[in-house]
Design a protein that fits this description.
It holds the Pfam family MRP-L20. This protein is an all-alpha fold and 216 residues long. It contains 11 helices and no strands. It has a domain at 132-174. The chain has helices at 2-7, 10-20, 35-41, 59-62, 89-106, 120-123, 135-147, 154-161, 165-171, 176-191, 195-213. The chain starts with a helix and ends with a helix.
C-alpha cells in the first residue's frame, strides 16, 4: 500500500488539498469615477409644480406655471387692486410707502418731484413726415432735375427741400435720357470687372431670384 502511494504522482496527491483550500474569486464594484456617470446618477426629474397642466386640450395656452423662489413675503408686493377694503395689509403697505418716501427725501440728489425722461416718440419726432412742400416747390424740384440731373441729384434735392429721398423719386423722376446714360455708365463699369467679381455678382443675383421664388 505504501509502495503504491509512493509511485503515484505528487500532483494527484495534492489535488484533494487544492480543492478544499481554494479561495473564492474577488467581485469588484465600479464606482462613479467619471463626470458623465455622476451626472446621470444625480439626474432628478423636475417637480410636478414646474410642469404644465396637461388635463386640458391646450395646456400651454390655458395655464400659467407660477413657482417663485422661497423668500420672505412682503406686503409691499401686493397691489391694492388685489386686496379687499378691510384687509389689514392695506395700512401696512401705506406705512411702508410713506417710510420709503421719507427715506428717499433725505438722500442727496433725490427730489420729491421726479421728472420722467422723454418718451421714445419724442426722440423720433424729427423724422416724422412734414407736409410743408407746395405745388410751386414740386415744380421747381422738377425743373432743377431736368436742367442738371448730375448736380441736382436725389440727395441734393432732398437736402435743399428738406424732404425724403422717396418723395424726390416720386415727384421728380429722372428723364429717359438720364436713365439711359446711367445704364451705359453701369455697363461700362461692369466691363472692367474681373472673372471673380463677375461670378460673385452672378451668384448674388441668382440667390436673390431664388429668395424671391421661395427656394431658399
Amino acid at each position: 500500500m505504501e509502495a503504491r502511494l509512493l509511485t503515484r504522482p505528487v500532483v494527484q496527491l495534492l489535488a484533494p488539498t487544492r480543492q478544499t483550500t481554494s479561495l473564492s474569486p474577488l467581485i469588484t464594484t465600479r464606482g462613479h469615477k467619471t463626470t458623465a456617470r455622476t451626472k446621470r446618477s444625480l439626474k432628478i426629474a423636475p417637480h410636478s409644480s414646474f410642469m404644465p397642466d396637461r388635463s386640458t386640450a391646450f395646456p400651454a395656452a390655458t395655464s400659467i406655471v407660477y413657482n417663485p423662489p422661497a423668500s420672505e413675503a412682503s406686503p409691499d408686493h401686493t397691489p391694492f387692486i388685489f386686496l379687499p377694503q378691510n384687509d389689514p395689509r392695506r395700512p401696512a403697505i401705506e406705512r411702508m410707502r410713506l417710510k420709503a418716501k421719507s427715506t428717499d427725501s433725505h438722500i442727496p440728489g433725490v427730489s420729491e418731484t421726479r421728472v420722467l425722461p422723454p418718451s421714445a416718440l419724442a426722440k423720433n419726432r424729427g423724422n416724422a413726415p412734414s407736409y410743408h412742400l407746395t405745388q410751386a416747390d414740386v415744380q421747381e424740384m422738377r425743373k432743377l432735375r431736368e436742367e442738371d440731373p448730375l448736380t441736382w441729384s436725389i440727395n441734393a434735392l432732398a437736402r435743399r427741400f428738406k424732404c425724403s429721398d422717396n418723395f424726390v423719386r416720386i415727384a421728380a423722376p429722372a428723364s429717359a435720357s438720364h436713365r439711359a446714360w446711367l445704364q451705359g455708365k453701369s455697363e461700362r463699369q461692369q466691363e472692367r470687372w474681373g472673372p471673380m467679381k463677375t461670378e460673385a455678382r452672378r451668384q448674388r443675383r441668382q440667390r436673390q431670384d431664388m429668395l424671391l421664388r421661395g427656394e431658399i
